[in-house]
Every structure is written in C-alpha cells, then in structure tokens.
Amino acid sequence: MSEKKNVLVAGANGSTGRIIIDLLKKSEKYQPIAMVRKPEQKKQFEKENVSAVLADLEEDLNHAVKGAYKVIFAAGSGGKKVIEVDQKGAKRFTDASKNAEVEKFVMLSSMGADNPGISEELGDYLRAKGNADDYLQNSGLAYTIVRPGALTDEDGSGKIQLKEKLDKQESISRANVARTLVEVLDDDVKQNRIFEILDGETPIEKAVRD
User: Which element (helix H / strand E) includes 54?
Assistant: First the structure.
C-alpha cells in the first residue's frame, strides 16, 4: 500500500472543515493536516491524532503549506472580514501553495461568486469569493472550484446535483459539500473546472466524474 499523502485543510476548525478532517482521517489515500489559528485548536486536533499547523490567513502562510501534497481551502470569515480573509487570505493561501508546488488546490467557493449582484446582503462576500476564485484560476496551479448553494446542517445523503451553472437557489448539507471537496482531490476529477452543487440524486463520486 502506498504512503498516504498530506492534505492541508485551511479552515479546519470550522463546521465544514471538521467534517473534511474526519473524512480525510478515514481515507486510504490522504491524511489531513489541520491549519488552525489558535494553539488550543492545534492541541485539540493533536489529541485526536490529527497533525496540525498554526497559521493565520492574514499573515504569511508559506511555513504552513510546506510539505502539503494537496490543499483544501474551506476557511471563511463568517462575513466579518470578507476582504482580509475570504479574498486576501485565499490569495495568500494560493501564493503559498504555488511556492510549495502543491499538486492540486480545491477551493470551497459559493454559488453567486460569479454574479454578486444576486444578493444585496451577501454582495461583498460573493465579490470577495469571486476575486479569490479568479486569482486561483490564473495562478497556474491545478485546481477545482466548488460552489455550493446555501449550507445546512442536515445529515449528508452522499448524493448531489452538479453542473457548471444550476440556475436555482437551493441548499446542500455541509456533509455533502465536505464529501465533494474530498472526492475532487483525486486527479481524475474535473481538473481546472468550476461547478455548482446542491443536494440531489447522483452519488457524489459519480457526479464529480461524469
């Protein structure tokens, strides 16, 4: 059996990030490294036998990404620091990933990132996400950008609908989003593509490969 490859998860302590870490722990191919901001979060992950690294998206990230094979950006400011975290933080993470020559960058984006005008309330956030997505696309890194609808805390069904544009406003469970992000780490999956996802009827592993 080949050695498991390191996947660095930015936003590991968030609601979606924690599910991603759990999925990677069970993976036969990958092992997670949790990127967190606070020493107590690092200790908590290490207690759970997960490697963790301290880093802040508002500062230099090169040390954090060293040694990562692939990365998942699942961090978010929760609307508090959209420019500093959701936009500039994602760009910093992209630059550090490029410097570390990571094999693939998986970005958790959002439906509407390509059309921030659809929501007055979320406009600034969607603009920040769109700018971060554009930056990643132009970075030269292999990437997959995943844009889910509104997130819920429902149990994951393991089934989604996936298209470049779904043209409807519906929701998707965080569990299904996390599974999609882990599934698209593989090299045979929608490389250098952007797509939207909602809860649906197609098994995730099939949806991301069709």
Answer: strand 51-54
